Amino acid sequence: MDHSLTDRHRATITAVCNTFIRTLERRDDPDGLWGLSGSGRGTEQAVVAAVEQMPEFANVCEVLESLDQASFATSPRRIREQSLHEILIGGDDAAVALRTIQRLTITISGELSSNRGGSFDTERDAISDPAPKTIVPIIPEGDSLEIDADVVVVGSGAGGGVIAGTLALQGLKVVVLEAGKYRNEDDFTMLQGPAFNDSYWRGGPATAADGNVWVQAGAGLGGGTVINESNCMETRSLVRDQWAKEFGLEGVDGAEYDRHLNSVRRRIMINGDCSDLNGPQLRMQAGADVLEWSFKRTHRNADPATYDPLTAGFTSYGDASGSKQSTLKTYLQDAFDAGADIFVNTSAQTIRVTGGKAAGIDAVYTDPDTGRTAAIRVNSETVVVACGALESPALLLRSGIGGPAVGQHLHLHPCTAVSGLYAEDLSSWWGPAYAGYVDEFADAHDGWGWVIEGVVYTHAAMSLPRQATPGKPEQTVNDFDRMASFIGLLRDRSSGQVTIDRSGNPVYGYAMTDATDIANSYDAVEGQIRLHEAAGAMSITSVAAGLPRWNRGENIAAFIDQCRAIPLRAGGHQLWSGHQMSSCRMGNNPETSVANPWGELHDTPGVWIGDSSALPTAPGTNPMFTIMALAHRTAEAISGIVDDPSQSTFAARA
After folding, report:
1. Do 438 and 531 contact (CB within 8 A), yes or no?
2. How far is 466 from 485, CA to CA, in rounded Å?
């Protein structure tokens, strides 16, 4: 439902945007980008349009009215910055609402900045070869369409894509329903704005209901595999052992699961030849060498024949080179070539159940250009739910199936971040953003630990110093080319939950409460700080309230103590998640899991979970490879067809 803001609301939003996005002076600014305020880019107009369609509209209006009563728009900048800062560090509805405006402002500003060009946007010009779309989605011509299938797969990412391709090649009639758009290399501009709008869930970073964690998830044909950084990390043996022993996932602790890993490895071309280290990762490696910590290069699903480090740093906006072997280019292409019907811009509404068993899906197709809708009815006795750990539980909840564990046990791999300033230009934009990592502390507490990875260096990163934190962002902006940022990725024991609002849309919350998680997160912050110091950083800044900073020569222990005193929640350390998992997890116990150890719902035969939400726990590593291997396992369980029956526990049981 659309709402309308008053003129006073709009004036306050303009002032807020200009406080978050202030004019800055940068030595090298040929496009005049940094000299523009939020309103100078037209940011406030787009923010207004977004706010008027938000379910949080009422809370946002309350914040705007409170600021207006305090004469926010006419106050000096320093007062405005302090006012916003005081709200942001709170934990109430006002803080959540303001963080929503902050996220919109920074994201939209980055989009408008992208349209102006600049050094981070020039490499796209080097790619001129056309890339025709090789999948032809079904577009319903009338107001409704009914179709029969052996299997209907809802979602097309790491899990859904693998299941669709595997089952279609086995001869089953497969229908794929994808809520997002179909975009390929010709559509990938390597710019933040178009990517956020068209390839990310809810248009980019989304804030939790409690404001504690920002999440990013893929949306579109191929899901997160199209916009992730291609890290292919195997499921660690201790995680596999835990899943087999505690959750009943037979075979994942042995050769059978290796077979699934190897099948996926071959299909998506996982290799170690496309992992060039850029400046920040070389600093990470150097620091690890000094500290005698374990540093490893990642393996990535990239085709060496078309891989180019000049464009590899932009794959989170879609890989314009075509090197990334996402499910779009592999398993979904297999499915289409084998006769699968693929729908895009089609949102599953409910799962139909007859006699306690799966009967199909009711969905709605929406033309992205005209808004025309059509009712899609898929009749199938096998339904695979694979729309991501935020949307999958919502679909089950709307359908009234799945049992008491639906939406529970949400894991996020919450990340903290620390930046270091170095003496030299690090060429942070060159090469893959995640080509190396430190795993010295991955098993810090009986298998529950943390790893240090890198970040993407584009407009979102450049927006960080513009946030309303008292200080001098000009210095950070002018030094951006010499900055390296690390993240501490946590294997979390804490869990959140996914519910639905009155319209049936997912609402998620997450609070870090587990004592081991809290200890590990603070250790991860300290680890990032010590890594930067060992690598020779001139100064170090924690991405937390107030952006606390250390300069070489100062007391590093005191700085670490300062960062450890900052809470791990909204208004403290900024927590971020690129991995959402376990909200419809597999397991033996119907009270604590949604699906059995093969992926089929405990309470509704014929409905299967086939995405990250099926993971019993957080794996502690980038999960794409794990999701795909488990999905391949589930696909074989659905059909009963395996590559080598002698190695399959499922075949022995069937």
Report:
1. yes
2. 16
299 DSSP 8-state letter: P
Residue 419 lies in a domain: yes
Q: Would residue 458 count as lying in a domain?
A: yes
At 119 the pLDDT is: 41
CB-count exposure of residue 136 (10 Å: 0-12, 13-18, 19+) = exposed
Q: Are strands 213-215 and 575-577 parallel, antiparallel or unpaired?
A: parallel
3-state secondary structure of 135: coil
Task: List the one residue out of 151, 138, 156 whose CA is nearest residue 387.
Answer: 156
Residue-wise DSSP of 209-275: TTSSEEE--B-STTTHHHHS--B--PPPHHHHHHHHHHH--TTTTSHHHHHHHHHHHHHTTEESSS-
DSSP string of 440-463, one letter each residue: TTTTTBTTB-EEEE----SHHHHH
Task: Kindly state whether residues 401 and 426 are assigned to the same domain.
Answer: no
- The answer to whether residue 168 sits within a structural domain is yes
Dist CA 482 CA 537 (whole Å): 10
Q: Which of 417, 428, 487, 415 is nearest to 453 (CA)?
A: 487
403: left (phi over 0), alpha (psi -120 to 50) or beta: left
Q: Which two tokens stand for residue 199?
A: 């390839």
| DSSP class per residue in 275-292 | ----HHHHHHHHHHHHHT
H/E element, 97: helix 93-114
Residue 214 DSSP class: E
Is 570 found in the same domain as 427?
yes
- Is residue 175 a contact partner of residue 152, using CB atoms and an 8 Å limit? yes
Domain with 429 in it: 280-298+415-491+513-574
Radius of gyration (C-alpha) of the chain in whole angstroms: 24
Q: Considering the domain boundaries, does residue 244 fall inside one?
A: yes
d(CA 91, CA 232): 36
197-208 pLDDT per residue, tens:
889 998 877 877
Closest Cα to residue 163, out of 47, 267, 284? 267
**543-574 per-position pLDDT tens digit:** 998 889 999 999 999 999 999 999 998 889 98
Token pair, residue 99, equals 């963080």
Per residue, the 3-state secondary structure of 569-600, as one string, reads CCCCECEEECCCECCCCECCCCCCCCECCCCE
Reported as a single tens digit per residue, the pLDDT across 13-71 is: 888 888 887 776 666 666 665 666 666 667 778 788 778 766 678 888 888 999 999 99
- Given a contact cutoff of 8 angstroms between Cβ atoms, the answer to whether 67 and 2 are in contact is no
Residue 297: CB atoms within 10 A of its CB come to 15
Helix 57-69 × helix 93-114 angle, to 10°? 90
Question: End-to-end distance of the chain based on CA atoms, in angstroms?
Answer: 50
